[in-house]
């Protein structure tokens, strides 16, 4: 089950909220756990057992870590943390990467590892990272051990952020699992945020996805058409991913939680470094806190720092999917970040803001081409077309046709990916905003509902995660 689904929107969510607010306060966490398990079981059935196994393992490991820390046995506590991480990484590697490694070995003539055709459990990359962070936080003393298995199970299975993030660390959510505040204003803010995210996903991201598919599959694509296609994909993945994050944050507020922000207008960045402070913030901060800093961060020799950066971005890339293009995508950003930190930062600071921004957009668009195309032959062909190396014309009637048909959507998307629209709305007189805000939300909900009823193109990008 996904948020952009009529079953979720008109059945599951109203029923969950109704039961959640009808039961006494002391039962609400248990109700949330039951509905979260139902939400996941609806789509994954038997694979729910994997999530439950991860929950049981990390709950028990957290208890052991706390016991050893209190007894001053830090060496034993470290071994328990290592055991927890080994278990979570093992299930992640098996279900997500076994077939990738087996297929790669077979392509080299090594057939001793069979391809199993393993189904990837949805959200496994998200909940394994969250449970791993729990035992580490307990060991570091950043979080209190959770002794209530129902409360801990709710942390792992919490349906608003289970399948598409943001990745929430236990130290960010632990106190809210114990005590949450319920106000009409918070609930209303949650409804508003959810509706905005739903509209971003259905009304914008899906349209850009269709444009990307048309460009990718075109047999008469020009150079400009290739760039138009990757621009469409960049807007699709932004409005899709940030839309899901908005919906998760909104659902959290409806249930009394406050989740961290996951996107801060990344396409207005002026450097790759700034872009990754704004894009998928929860993933970047996870790798920083639990991999980069433990490896030594930048407080070490330059060769060691470069190695640390390499490992983090290799891991960031391959986390996104079981295909080698994701590793290449991660290393692509490693190279650009290294160039910025060693050579380009001072030069960029001297450039006008517009040129800084154009530099960032060019880097990101090429990066999205690497990310979107899993087949290396297709990737080479598409990149060659983007840079005019295939003899294709700069412009073609087919490109003009696509641009005319999607011009309005592109204009809305380009403005919506910046703070411009929100800033203009905030400058309106307060009375206008009071009346206009609910009208826009109702319109967005009605149009999104109409799309769900009539639309056929509604991909879920997070199957690969």
How is this structure best described in words?
With 465 residues, this protein is an all-alpha fold. 74% of the residues lie in helices and 0% in strands. The protein has 18 helices and no strands. The protein has helices at residues 6-22, 28-44, 48-70, 74-107, 124-140, 149-157, 170-178, 184-217, 223-254, 272-278, 281-295, 302-319, 324-350, 353-372, 376-386, 397-416, 420-426, 430-454. The protein is globular, with a radius of gyration of 23 Å. The model has no long low-confidence stretch (mean pLDDT 92).
Number of helices: 18
Low-confidence stretches: none
Overall morphology: globular
Largest sheet: none
Give the count of structural domains.
2
Average pLDDT metric: 92
- How far apart the termini lie comes to 15 Å
Order of helices and strands: HHHHHHHHHHHHHHHHHH
Helical fraction: over 70%
Question: Helices, strands, pairings?
Answer:
Layout: H1 6-22, H2 28-44, H3 48-70, H4 74-107, H5 124-140, H6 149-157, H7 170-178, H8 184-217, H9 223-254, H10 272-278, H11 281-295, H12 302-319, H13 324-350, H14 353-372, H15 376-386, H16 397-416, H17 420-426, H18 430-454
